[in-house]
Amino acid sequence: MYDNMWDDGNSLGPKEVHSYLTRMMYNRRNKFNPLWNSFILGGVKNGQKYLGMVRMIGVNFEDNHVATGFGNHLARPILRDEWHENLSFEDGVKLLEKCMRVLLYRDRSAVNKLQVCCFLTSFIMISFSPSEYMDFVSKFPITHNF
């Protein structure tokens, strides 16, 4: 996305970029040539946090927690039940691990690693080394019944 007016004092925020992605994905869908992607977009502008999601056909929404793919069906109900506004970082990581555990149980071809990223208004913190392998994986052997 290119901003033609660099010095006009305005900049595109997360809400505007989310709207642009929604229109772009919907336009590609109408041409019967969709991009097979889902996007999660988060950001902060003027002190207001924003988190939104766009699917491959232009379906979009914004919420306090989002997920794509299989996680939208299995992890979001857990997030709806257990997420609250004053959730600490450690409790949030535990909640994400619980969601990923459920997803890993349902899809055994998934990777059992989790990388956490925390967005704050002043900085972004990313754990560059993925967290330890989730110990529960070794308790359930992978079996292939073909």
From TrEMBL:
Record-linked Pfam families:
Proteasome (PF00227)
Q: Name one GO cellular component term.
A: proteasome core complex
Alphabetized InterPro entries for the sequence:
Ntn_hydrolases_N, Proteasome_alpha, Proteasome_sua/b
The Gene Ontology biological process annotation of the record reads:
proteolysis involved in protein catabolic process
Q: What keywords would UniProt list here?
A: Proteasome
Question: What protein is this chain from?
Answer: Proteasome subunit beta type-4-like
From which source organism is this entry? Juglans regia
